[in-house]
Amino acid sequence: MCFDLDSSPPIPVISGAAVSHDDLVLEANDGNRFAAFVASPDEPNGIGVVILPDVRGLYRFYEELALRFAERGYTAVAFDYFGRTAGAERRGDDFEYMPHVQQTTVESVQADTAAAVELLRQRGIDRIFTVGFCFGGRQSWLAAASGNALRGAIGFYGRPADATERAGEIDAPILALQAGADQNITAEDNEAFDSALTDAGVEHEVVTYDGAPHSFFDRKQEEFAAASEDAWNRVLAFVDQHA
Fold first, then answer.
1. Angle subtended by helix axes 106-122 and 135-143, to nearest 10
2. Other C-beta atoms within 10 Å of 93: how many?
3. H or E element at residue 128
């Protein structure tokens, strides 16, 4: 299960922060046109974040997350996965995403990720991180094995199998924030990822929140507020360390 449509990031809003935001259509190298949401601080700190959503693609949760990053000085872009099959227009809450998820490939998602990274570089941002959730968590780690010259890649409760297999190609530090009660990602999966990164000499940390379910990072999940706060603090510390 991923976030509900009325979920929101469990991150304090910085009241009065000077930020702006835009809906954009980006184009990948293969000609795919896809939707993106960019949030920019009036006083950027030179660090950019590419946000890779869960299986639903781009919707309100990730637009809000981009704003929370921008309030803290980061330029953030969240993008959609389904330009090739659903177009670049905004969609309603009744969008049936799974048929479109099934038509994505690692190559198509990474082509779109590269376009989002390039957008930030065109805006003068060259210290870039990816952060992804669920489906996007796995793709965030794979972005560090796809020639993007990232400063780091962060994933929340991503399935690590592909990234484990490609650990030798990863060229940026990795932060994995995993859910201990995730029914689809086992402790053995996380341990294998940790070991593969160690063997490949990749700087990394794999953190598991005991008892936390998949998609715990949600303001509605009040019983996991401490885990969410810790995870967010780890994200900021990781970016600060590697920027």
1. 60
2. 9
3. strand 127-133
2, 100, 214, 218: the catalytic one is 214
Q: How confident is the model at residue 1 (pLDDT cuts 50, 70, 90)?
A: low
Tell how far CA 202 is from the center of its chain: 19
Residue 213 DSSP code: P
Which of 206, 208, 204, 224 lies closest to 216 in space, CA to CA?
Answer: 224
What local confidence, expressed as pLDDT, does residue 112 receive? 98
> Does the active-site annotation cover 242?
no
Give me the catalytic one of 80, 112, 134, 204: 134
Of 182, 194, 204, 218, which one is the catalytic site residue?
182
Q: What is the pLDDT of residues 13-58, one digit of tens each?
A: 998 888 999 999 999 999 999 999 999 999 999 999 999 999 999 9
The C-alpha atoms of residue 109 and residue 130 are separated, in whole angstroms, by 13
199 catalytic, yes or no?
no
Give the tens place of pLDDT for each residue, 209-228.
999 999 999 999 999 999 99
Residue type, 35: A
- The Cα–Cα gap between 13 and 102 comes to 35
Instruction: Please report where in the chains the tokens 């995993």 appear, as a residue.
Output: 178
Q: How many CB atoms lie within 10 A of CB 70?
A: 24
For residue 182, indicate whether it is catalytic: yes
Q: Is 39 helix (H, G, I), strand (E, B) or coil?
A: strand
